[in-house]
Amino acid sequence: MNGGWGMRIGIIGGGAVGLLAGAYLGRKHDVHIVVRNMEQRTILDREGVLCDQLSSPVAVKAHLKPHLPTDVDVWLISVKQYDLEEVLSLPLPKNGKYLFLQNGMGHLSLLQSLPLDSFAAVVEHGALKVSFNEVEHTGRGRIRAAPFTGLSADMEELAEALHQPDFPILVQDGAVKMLSEKMVINAVINPLTALFKQKNRAVKENPYIRSLGYRLCEEACRTLGLDLPTQWDRVLTIAEQTGGNQSSMWKDLQEGRRTEIDAISGFILEQSSEDLPWHEFVVEAVHAMEFEKGVNIDE
Prior knowledge:
Layout: E1 8-12, H1 16-25, E2 30-35, H2 38-47, E3 50-51, E4 61-64, E5 74-77, H3 84-88, E6 97-100, H4 107-112, E7 117-123, E8 126-129, E9 134-139, E10 143-147, H5 152-162, E11 169-171, H6 175-196, H7 202-205, H8 207-224, H9 228-241, H10 248-254, H11 261-271, H12 277-292
Parallel strand pairs: 1-2, 1-5, 2-4, 3-9, 5-6, 6-7, 10-11
Antiparallel strand pairs: 7-10, 8-9
Helix pairs in contact: 6-8, 6-9, 6-10, 6-12, 8-9, 11-12
C-alpha cells in the first residue's frame, strides 16, 4: 500500500476496459498502465486518461511492455483472450494478486497451472476507446469478480479496496458459473450484432435476430449446463440495458482487428459433444468477415 494513494495497481492492456479502469481507479489509487505502443505510453504519461464521464483527466503512469512496474498490490489483466499467453510469459511477480478481465473461459485452464493468486472477473460496463488516452463510458454497470486460484478472503479485501460508488465491484461465489453466464450473453449478442452490424438492442427488438439469438442461447445453455429460460431472460435484459452500445466484436471488425469469436463461440463448440449448427455458422461467418478485412486469425 502507498500511503494516501491507496493501492498500487498495475493494469496490463491499454484498450477500452484498461483505460476505463485506469480512469476510475486512478482517482484514489496509484495506477500504472502497461501498453505495447510507445506513442500511447508517451500520451498517457503526459496527459493522463480522459473519460467523458469524469470532469478532469486522471493521472497515471504508463510502462512499455515488457517492462513492468514493481511493488504492485493488484494487477488487472485487460487484454483480449488471444493475447493472454503472451502476457503470461512476462516476468509477472509471484507475490501479487491478479484479476483477469477476459471474455470467454479458455484462460481458466492456463491459470490453473500458474503459481499466481488469480481471480476472474466480468465487466458489465460499456466502454469505447476513442484515442490512446480517451475512453467513452457508454454504459454504466459493474465488475463482478470471483476467486479462482486465489482465496475468498483476498477477493473480499480487493473488492472492498477497489469498489467505488460509480465503479462498483461485486463479489461472486464461483468463477466458473459467473463466467459461464457471461459467456452465454457474449455468444448471443457479440456475433449477431457483428454480423448484422446492429447495436445491442436489435437482439431484443428485431424479431429475426431475436429468433437467431434464442437458438444460440439454447445451444450455449445446453453445452454449459445452464437453465435456458433464466439465461435467455438475462440476454434480453442486457440487450435492452445496453441497447445503444456497439458490441466489441462489431467494433473489432469495423477496425480490421481480430475478434474473440474463437474464445467465445469457438470455446462452446469445443466443449460440446454434439453438433451445434448455429454456433458453427456464426464462427465461420465471423471468420469470413475477418478474412474480407485482411485479418490474420492464425497469429
